[in-house]
Amino acid sequence: MISCDKAAHLCNKSQYKEATFIEKLQLKFHLLICKVCSVHSAKNSKLTSLCKQAKLHSLSKKDKAEMKKLIDKNIT
Q1: How far apart are CA 38 and CA 27, in angstroms?
Q2: What are the pLDDT tens digits along the chain (76 aa)?
Q3: Using an 8 Å Cβ cutoff, are 1 and 30 in contact?
Q4: pLDDT of res. 35
Q5: Residue 8: how many CB atoms within 10 A of its CB?
Q6: Left (φ > 0), alpha (ψ -120 to 50) or beta: where does 55 sit?
Q7: C-alpha angle 33/4/27, rounded to 5°?
Q8: How many domains are there within the chain?
Q9: Nearest to 30 by CA among 14, 18, 16
Q10: Helix axes 4-15, 35-53, angle to 10 degrees
Q11: 3-state secondary structure (DSSP) of residue 8
């Protein structure tokens, strides 16, 4: 049995097609047992669906790198 924290992480990976077959199985088993995570997964799926409908996209690799530089600069 995986922890709820790991289930949340696997939920995100699964939604973005980054989870392995084993991770998907672990998540499905956890969701059968844990109703809190099951609700989280359903809400996460809904949010992902709404973002796709709104045609929202993530930052480009260049923009991400620039943002990381700014964050690193302000942290140190």
Answers
A1: 10
A2: 899 999 999 999 998 899 999 999 999 999 999 999 999 999 999 988 888 888 877 788 899 899 899 988 888 6
A3: yes
A4: 97
A5: 18
A6: left
A7: 60
A8: 1
A9: 14
A10: 30
A11: helix
Identity of the residue numbered 22 = I
In three-state secondary structure terms, 34 is coil
CA dihedral 39, 1, 23, 27 (to 10 degrees): -20
CA distance 66 to 53: 28
The tokens describing 19, both together, are 């989870």
What is the token pair recorded at 9?
A: 């992480």
Length of the chain in terms of residues written: 76
DSSP annotation of 76 reads -
| Max Cα-Cα span within the chain | 44
Q: Which domain holds residue 70?
A: 4-75
